[in-house]
Every structure is written in C-alpha cells, then in structure tokens.
Design a protein that fits this description.
The protein has 58 residues and is mainly α. It is built from two helices and no strands.
C-alpha cells in the first residue's frame, strides 16, 4: 500500500486546518442541517397523513 500525498492526509497533530478545508466543512454542516430538517418535515408529514387516514376509516 503506497502512502498518500501529504495534501490528502489533512492537517497533522498540532497543525491548523487550511481555510479552504474549513469552508468545505462549514458547507457540509449546512447541507447536513438542511437535509435533517427536510427529513424531519417528511416524517411529520407522513405521520399526519397516517393519522388523517386512520380517523377517516373509523
């Protein structure tokens, strides 16, 4: 197994991450939050539809 180039390994111990790495991580966190909110809204919608169907059939 050949070692990876130093650029792909990320910052080593005691080193600060590069500014572009921080920007990438920030964007990933923002996307993850949006996706979590959308997933939560979808779950609530499905729950509401299920409850509505159950009350109609009774």
């Amino acid at each position: 197994m050949s070692p990876q180039p130093e650029d792909e390994l990320g910052p080593g111990p005691g080193e600060l991450p590069r500014p572009e790495d921080e920007l990438i991580r920030k964007r990933q966190r923002e996307r993850a939050r949006v996706l979590a909110l959308l997933l939560g809204a979808f779950v609530v919608l499905m729950f509401g539809i299920t409850i509505a169907k159950m009350t109609i059939n009774q």
